[in-house]
Amino acid sequence: MDAPALPEDGKLSHNIAHFARALRRAGLPIGPGRVIDAIRAVEAAGFTEKVDFYWTLHACFVSRPEQRAVYDQVFRLYWRDPQFLEHMMTLLLPAVRGVQEDRLADAAEKRAAEALLDGHGIDLPDREGEARDDDAQIEIDASSTMSHEERLKTLDFEQMSMAEVAEAKRMLARLALPVRPLITRRMVADLAGRRIDGRRTLRGALRQGGEVTRLMHKAPGARWPNLVVLCDISGSMSQYSRLVLHFVHAVANRKGQGWARVHAFTFGTRLTNITRHLRNRDVDAALKAAGAEAQDWSGGTRIGACLRAFNRDWSRRVLGQGAVVLLITDGLDRDDTGALAAEMERLHLSCRRLIWLNPLLRWEGFAPRASGIRAMLPHVDSFRAGHSIASLQALGQAISEAHDTGEKARLMALIGAD
Fold first, then answer.
1. What is the pLDDT of residue 113?
2. CB 39 within 8 A of CB 80
3. What are phi and psi of 141, to 5 degrees?
4. pLDDT digits (tens, 9 = 90+) for 211-238
5. Of 41, 132, 210, 355, most Cβ neighbours within 10 A?
6. b (16+ CB within 10 A) / e for 106-118
7. Contact criterion met (CB below 8 Å) for 230 and 241
8. 235 phi and psi, to 5 degrees?
9. What are φ and ψ of residue 187, in 5° steps?
10. In what order do the strands lie in the sheet with 195-196?
11. Residue of 215, 191, 190 whose CA lies nearest to 202
């Protein structure tokens, strides 16, 4: 039996188009061509079975494995009516609003719901019989939007509302952290090089009967360093850590920034390697898996013990060949400061640059009075704030400029004055 054709006056095509827009808001690269293909595919396959309808749209909209979780959640929320077949045949809108779950949200489920309810449902298709004002005009004040984004960039992560946190995560996902390549001693062929490559010149001459017709040149080669992130997830750092890890995930998954590899570790009362979780391109699934493995989230702080574990177990594996280390912590540690200073010194000597991001620097009157901060500060190359989007944007300067010390010099002067 032939598949039923889509009614000319129905709204199933309209619903599929809106479903595609929701997927696009959730991060899937879907253009108008895929929407047209999906509508044609449904016309060919029909919609008598929900599972067939699911896989028909899946074939049109999903192109990478990491997109499956988002697609599954958006589909479940959008086409969730239990009387699916009846509503498909009558072409009514699915019930989305007012749905509540008693369990914890799965990976990508929150993002799917936000995509469906984007703009408080303004873009949702109209129900049958509902009035629609085609003459309504919407005015957007671009200057207000820009000023809002600029304010959000400087807003403290801990002072953000839930809506601002969601918007901040989207902005952090677009941030980049470029790095300059390291010049090596190994020479490589280079037509514009200043040094003559005698070996390649002679080899070329042998092909010409021993006559040197062209001089070959060489220049020092370049390679990219590793980025190692040590992020404090104790109770005082919880809100900052969640947003910083969104930024680290974006850096780890963005190609062309120059980093050879990005390694990430969390610490509170123990050290946890979350590098493999950040390789998942879906940020929600990646951070959910990282949070499940880091059992000490929002707990106490033992910076010295965790740095000792890193120096003992991971330092030689990830800090070779000029790695850059980002240490994100407030430095509030009550353990033995002598041991903390020794581990910081060892970490500093093992990497090319050690940059400390501390959210406490957001206070204008900040002074290094805590014993943990006093023990750690002498052993870092740069000491910078890490409490806002703007502070993470400025991090690129600290990495690119070898002589950038941030606030270290000023605070070291305060320590000396004491």
1. 57
2. no
3. -90, 100
4. 888 888 888 888 889 999 999 998 888 8
5. 355
6. bbbbebbbebbbe
7. no
8. -60, -40
9. -90, 140
10. 182-189, 217-223, 195-196
11. 215
Torsion of CA 224, 378, 241, 359, to 10 degrees: -120
What's the sign of the alpha-carbon dihedral 114, 120, 126, 130?
Answer: positive
**Residue 71, helix vs strand vs coil:** helix
- C-alpha to C-alpha distance for 350 and 379, rounded to whole angstroms: 11
Q: Quick one: pLDDT at residue 381? A: 93
How far is the C-alpha of 230 from the C-alpha of 265, rounded, in Å?
5
| Residue carrying structure tokens 């984004």 | 149
Task: Name the token pair of 223.
Answer: 């390679």
pLDDT tens per residue across span 192-211 = 888 888 888 888 888 888 88
Residue whose C-alpha is closest to residue 9's, from 104, 141, 128: 128
The residue assigned the tokens 């002498």 is 378
In 10 A of CB 80, how many CB atoms? 12
Residue closest to 328 by CA, chosen among 382, 278, 270, 280: 382
Q: How far is CA 63 from CA 18, 67, 68, 286, in A?
A: 19, 7, 9, 19
Q: Mean per-residue pLDDT for 294-312?
A: 91
Residue whose structure tokens are 């950038």: 404
| 163 has pLDDT over 50 | yes
DSSP 79-135: T--SSHHHHHHHTPPPP-TT---SSPPPTTHHHHHHHHTGGGGTTSPPPTT----TT
Match 């010390």 to its residue by tokens. 405
Question: H helices of 217-325, where?
Answer: 238-253, 275-278, 283-293, 303-313, 315-318
* 3-state DSSP assignment of residue 154: helix
Handedness of CA 116, 119, 120, 123 (dihedral sign): negative
pLDDT of 51 reads 85
Q: Per the structure block, which two tokens stand in for 123? A: 């873009």
E strand map for 178-278: 182-189, 195-196, 217-223, 227-232, 262-267, 271-273
Question: Is-contact 359 398, C-beta < 8 A?
Answer: no
CB 20 within 8 A of CB 35: yes
Contact (CB, 8 A) for 271 and 311: no
For the chain, what is the radius of gyration of the CA atoms? 28
